[in-house]
Amino acid sequence: AFPPRGGGGRADSEPLRHVLSSSTEAIRADGKASRWASALRTLRHLQDAGARPDTVACSAALSALGRGSTWLPAFELLRWMGAAQVPCNSFTCGASLSACEKDRQWCKGLEVLAAMASCSAECNVVTCSAAASACEKGEQWRPVFQLLDKAQSLGVESNTVMYSATVRACRGSWRRMALLLIEMHVCRVALNGYTYGAAIAACETGKQWELALALLSEMEGARIDCSTLVANAAISACEKSKKWLRGLQILGHMRLRRIPCDIITYNAAISACEGGEVWPKALDLFFVMRQAGVAGDTVTYGAMAKTCHGPDRWERCVGLFRDMRHRRVDGNAAVYSAAANVCEKANIWQEGLLLLSEMESSGVPCDAAACSTGASLHVMSMQWQAGLRLLGEAWGRSVEKDLIMHGAAVRLSSEGHEWPTVIGLLASVRQQGAEPIASA
């Protein structure tokens, strides 16, 4: 750890200058090999030999720390440089910022940037970009916007890297992202693959499928290669907006352009079909995925189950579920619940209860949706007490979920003529500050 012991002397003599020079070269070699601990030891040995580390030696050590993503020793070394009056420059501060960026220490990164003014180090586009990236990785969009303003006030011309970091920080707000893209066009800052990828990811979060497709088209017009990650985000934007046809068109474009399709690609496309209730398309995708050598996961089977709603599709859903078990894909509560719900809608209570029984024996925790579906299945099978036992583990959750489960419990109790239980359940709903649902 740093700071070094003592103050050390200046390398005024020839032997000390030689020690300083050879130690600096050793630190640089450690930095290139990402041996930051060795670099710090060499810096200590240099000081123990009677020579104070200079700016060059400290910069080399900071560079090693930056590559090793170790922000705390970097921050301590920079602070020691200030106390020991070792001059700092843009390179030393930039190396410290790099360590903060990789460790997502956005707050410390801003402290380094603020300290640059006190040590007369020039704030340039590299240091501002590193600080912006630290804020982006820490998911802090406000400081990134402040950095953009600060850079402009200092006469630092913001570049693609800095704007890309700002766009990525805005992935939770597509409107801010859109304004930034307009600003980039006005300032004639080039957009790259990372910028487009971050922008389309923001469209995915905001369910802005039209903007995502427009950006994808603009990206192609600019002859920027589209990656699997970017295309996946565009398909997900279509899926979340229930635009299944658009999602399938992007998938077709990926295959035409030989952009690799992964499990996320197929899951998003299958989920888009779920929204459009076009289960034959989802089934086609499922088999295309298998032919491509991409193994389905829990999300795949859950999405497939949700596309199988309808009285004539429950057998297909159960068959897919058996296939999932055969391939040793672990199911979660959402998968079991979706499959059981298909059986409920088709009035096939035996298969539905069997699925929920498998869920319990597999050790998968029963969630609110599974409990409600199970309650309905027990009503169909006239197994009132078993249904109430199933719901017993669900009490104590949020009011919104409890309302659904209370309604299911009321149905079970009333069908079984357990009127005291019905009255007690209705009273407990009101105690939580809610009104019983109409079906109850």
Automatic annotation (TrEMBL):
It comes from Alexandrium catenella. Keywords: Repeat. InterPro entries: PPR_rpt (IPR002885), TPR-like_helical_dom_sf (IPR011990). This is Pentacotripeptide-repeat region of PRORP domain-containing protein. Pfam families: PPR (PF01535).
